[in-house]
């Protein structure tokens, strides 16, 4: 059975339980702020905020100018 250790969230700085059976590249979540975290080093419990690779600032948004007839 896997044991848990406490790890500090890089987003909110709260400690949360980190399962020892996670591997590098696995995703876990902070139990305090629900930040999505990527496991960097499972031995030390090092995690980082997961980057949203699929996010595109412009995708899905339409820009309207004041001189456009319809808003």
Please summarize what this structure is.
This protein is 0% helix and 32% strand. It has 71 residues and is mainly beta.
CATH class of the domain at 4-49: Mainly Beta
Structural class: mainly beta
Helix content: under 10%
**What value does the average pLDDT take?**
81
Low-confidence parts:
none
Regarding quaternary structure, what we see is single chain
Q: What's the count of strands?
A: 5
- Write the element-wise H/E pattern from the N-terminal end onward: EEEEE
Main β-sheet, in a few words? 3 strands, antiparallel
Strand adjacency order, main sheet: 3-4-5
Distance separating the two termini = 58 Å
Query: What is the annotated CATH architecture of the domain at 4-49?
Result: Single Sheet
Q: Can you walk me through this structure?
A:
By secondary structure, this protein is mostly beta strands. It has a domain at 4-49: Rubrerythrin, domain 2, CATH 2.20.28. It has strands at 4-8, 15-19, 27-29, 36-41, 46-49. It has a 3-stranded antiparallel β-sheet, with no helix packed on it. Strands 1-2 form a two-stranded antiparallel sheet. Strand 3 (27-29) and strand 4 form a beta hairpin. The radius of gyration is 19 Å and the shape is elongated. The protein starts with a strand and ends in a 22-residue tail after the last strand.
Descriptors:
71 residues; mainly beta; Rubrerythrin, domain 2; three-stranded antiparallel beta sheet; 5 strands
Topology:
Elements: E1 4-8, E2 15-19, E3 27-29, E4 36-41, E5 46-49
Antiparallel strand pairs: 1-2, 3-4, 4-5
